[in-house]
Amino acid sequence: MVDETLELELATELLKKFLPEEMHGEVLEELKAELNKNQNPVAEPIKNYSAGDRAAILVEALPYIQEFHGKTIVIKYGGNAMVNDDLKASVMQDIALMKFVGINVVIVHGGGPEITGFLKKLGKKSSFVSGLRVTDEETVEIVEMVLAGKINSEIVTLLNRRGLRAVGLSGKDADLIQATKKLATVYEQGEKTKVDIGYVGKSKQVNIQIVKDLISQDYVPVIAPIGVGEDGESYNINADYVAADIAGALKAEKLLLLTDTEGVYKNFEDKSSFISTLKADEAREFIKDGVISGGMIPKVEACLRALDRGTNKAYIIDGRLPHSIILELFTETGLGTEVG
Description:
single chain, alpha/beta, Carbamate kinase, 8-stranded mixed β-sheet, two-stranded antiparallel ribbon, 12 helices, globular
C-alpha cells in the first residue's frame, strides 16, 4: 500500500499543476492540515525529490488524464468518506482535480451512517436484510429528508466552494428515477427467497436527459437515491444500484464505488485472499455461496448491473484512503477490486 503521507504529497503536486491558481491557497492549506495529522517520519517529503522524480509523477498521470479527458465517470460517494471531515476534503479535492482536467463527473451519494444516527435519535432501530435497510412509511420520510434535504445540499456546497458548478438532484426531480418496490433476496443453503422490506425501491426507468443536460453545461450533478413511484410515493433505493443505473444510462467510462474496505476478499479474515479482478460469473457464484455477503452484495451486484447496461469498467475502492479516487484513476497500479 502506498504510504499515506506520500499520497498527500503527490496529490499536492497534482493539485498545484492542474487547479486554477485562485484555488491553490485553500486547497493546499487543507492538504497541509491533512499532513500535520498524518506525519510519517519515514516518508520523504516530495520537496526533497529531484526535478526528474517530480516530472515522473506528473508523466505517470498524463496518459490517464488524456485517456479520461471528455469521458464521464460516475462516483458512488458513501461510507466513512462522508462522515470523516478529512476524508470529505480529500474526496472533494479529487473531484475538483477531475473536473479541471476535463473529466465529466456525476456523483450519486448514500448516507447510511447519518440516516442510522438520525433514526437512533428518534428511537427507531435500524435493521437490514441482504445489505438493504428495512424502510417503513415513517422511515422513508426520514430517509428522504436526510438524503435530499441535508446531505445532498452539503455536498453541493463543498463542491461549489472549490470552484465547481454543482447541482443537487433527487431521483424525483424531472422523474429522473421512476421506481417500483424491491424485494430483498435472501440466500440460505444455496436457495434464495424474496422478502418485503417496505418502501425500498428499484429503478423501473431512468430518465437521464436532465443529467446529460447538466453535464453539457459543465455542471456536476449530485444525485440523492430517492425514486418516485406511480402514485408519487417515495422509495429509498440503495445508492450503489442508483449509481449503477446512472452509469449504465450514461454509458460511463467508469463507475467507482467508495466503500469502507479495500475491496473484495474471498475470505475477509485472510488479507492474502484479496481479489483485484473479479470475473462476472465468479462474482455471481460467490454471492450465491455466501462468500460475498451483507453490504458487499449490493456493491458487487451494482458493478455487474452497470457493466450489463453499457458502463466500460466498474471498481470497488477503499474510500477510507485519502485521495483514493485519483490514485485509482491516475496511477499505474490503481487500487481496489475491478468487477467484470
